[in-house]
Amino acid sequence: MRTSLLAVFCVTVAAALAVATGQSAARFEDWRQAVRESQSALGWEYIRFHGVLNDDMSVVIAPNEYSFFNIDQVYDFLLSINMRPIVELSFMPTAYASGNETIFYYKGNITPPKDYAQWDDLITKLAQHLVDRYGLEEVSQWYFEVWNEPNCGFWSGNQTDYFTLLQHTYTALKSVSPLIRVGGPATCQSQWIAETVAFCKQNGIQLDFISTHEYPTDPTTYPVRDLMHDIFAATKAAAGGIPVIYTEFNSGLFSDTPNHDLPYAASFLVNMVAKTQGLVEIASYWAVSDVFEEGGQDPTPFHDMYGIVTNIGVPKPAFHGLKLLRQAGTDRVAVSTVGDANTTSVWATRTDNEVQVFITNFDYFEFPIQNYTVTVTVAGVAAKGSPVNSLYYLIDDTHVNPRAVWEAMGSPTYPTPAQIVALHEASTLHAQQLPYSVVGSDITFTFNLVPYSTVAVFIPLQFY
Ligand SMILES: *[C@@H]1O[C@H](CO)[C@@H](O)[C@H](O)[C@H]1NC(C)=O
Ligand SMILES: *[C@@H]1O[C@H](CO)[C@@H](O)[C@H](O)[C@H]1NC(C)=O
Ligand SMILES: *[C@@H]1O[C@H](CO)[C@@H](O)[C@H](O)[C@H]1NC(C)=O
Ligand SMILES: *[C@@H]1O[C@H](CO)[C@@H](O)[C@H](O)[C@H]1NC(C)=O
Fold this sequence. Notes:
Elements: E1 9-12, H1 16-20, H2 25-42, E2 46-49, E3 60-62, E4 65-66, H3 69-80, E5 84-89, E6 102-103, E7 108-109, H4 116-134, H5 136-139, E8 143-146, H6 159-176, E9 182-187, H7 193-202, E10 209-214, H8 227-238, E11 244-249, H9 263-275, E12 282-286, H10 317-325, E13 331-333, E14 336-338, E15 344-351, E16 354-361, E17 372-378, E18 391-395, H11 402-408, H12 417-426, E19 432-433, E20 437-439, E21 442-449, E22 453-460
Parallel strand pairs: 1-2, 1-12, 2-5, 5-8, 8-9, 9-10, 10-11, 11-12
Antiparallel strand pairs: 3-4, 6-7, 13-15, 14-17, 15-16, 16-22, 17-21, 18-19, 18-22, 20-21
The structure holds 2-acetamido-2-deoxy-beta-D-glucopyranose (4 copies).
Domain Glycosyl hydrolases family 39 N-terminal catalytic: 25-432
GO molecular function: hydrolase activity, hydrolyzing O-glycosyl compounds
Active site: 149 (proton donor)
């Protein structure tokens, strides 16, 4: 079976912020460094961020007078590191806004335009500028998403008002080129999908993608096992054949229980990728870095912020979970398991030279979880020799858990250079020899998995 596992992953960030909020150049460089390093390790293809039209991006100088200089700086950088933007068209430039309501530390204006002729002009000129600068062949591989979470406090209008914005933005972008990909509704909690599809059908709008967000802690969804699968499948069905992009998700947006910093997030990801395969075109992890200023920049390195990299550049377990996943092959391999319980999952892939086995012991915090022992058998691997060079990597409470090491330091708000070195060391994947036994031509191995652990096993195939 041909499968596509990881082509679908990209990352989301709250990012134009890095250039947009007038922060110091050093701070901007911190953010870029996190993006550069994670792109290089994880192979992100796309990145999305709020606020590209915010006042601090200096886009609308005066009515009908624009500067796209800062936007160019952001997109030039992304293209230079082989990434493309998912252009979230937000928020409202004050000069064009119908009201004063803003969101977050950086004061994104969340009101509809006071005059749609002005908004249409801005969107058309921006799209034309991007096509002029980067070429239609390039820009037609980007995604243009209309606004962010109009149903969750990021839009002062109602659903009808949002659909007006969607229709105007769609028409403006398509007037520049029908090849520009336009989508929405960018909602939180996987909402408004059927309504959006119906509105578009009634109004002759052919969206290129449907976008929405889901977090396992969203108030509308009490977690069930395979929550992300069930939600993605429902959205795909409601989208009626239009490709679906989850432009935000992670292991839990708000939670009393820390999760983003912990091995929990890695096992969530490794578990989810196999289970949601084929349902969505892109799933975009929120967010890339804890250099993140929706609530102002928090100095604490581990405060359960969304990044896969802390504000001091230390990768979190989720980063390493994605790094292991990046090595998955595109063909699934059958494995048999003994002793697996409700919370363990085992799946395997292969490439020409290797079998990769991914094992997690994961469930949402709401469910009971305990230590489990899992024995995995991969058939046929030992037929032509002994897989002596097989390796495994482990992420759990005591492996690749820099937050635990930081807490053992006394949770310093401003770690010293020596402490930062120690945190990087604590956040390193270590290869270990796989203890295995051969039964006929099959190889078998056993792991005792503490809750929220992730194991990735790599078996070289020259023995086939
Ligand atoms: C915006 O705020 C200013 C100053 O508080 C006020 O005078 C103005 O009426 C407000 N405009 C709108 C559209 O709410
Ligand atoms: C949405 O708001 C507009 C005003 O912007 C109003 O005319 C319309 O009745 C509202 N629609 C609904 C369904 O509440
Ligand atoms: C698995 O789930 C079922 C139903 O929720 C439960 O009855 C059973 O005890 C669980 N088994 C284990 C090993 O967790
Ligand atoms: C789970 O396994 C760990 C590591 O082997 C051990 O320290 C812990 O006591 C075990 N917990 C339970 C509930 O058996």
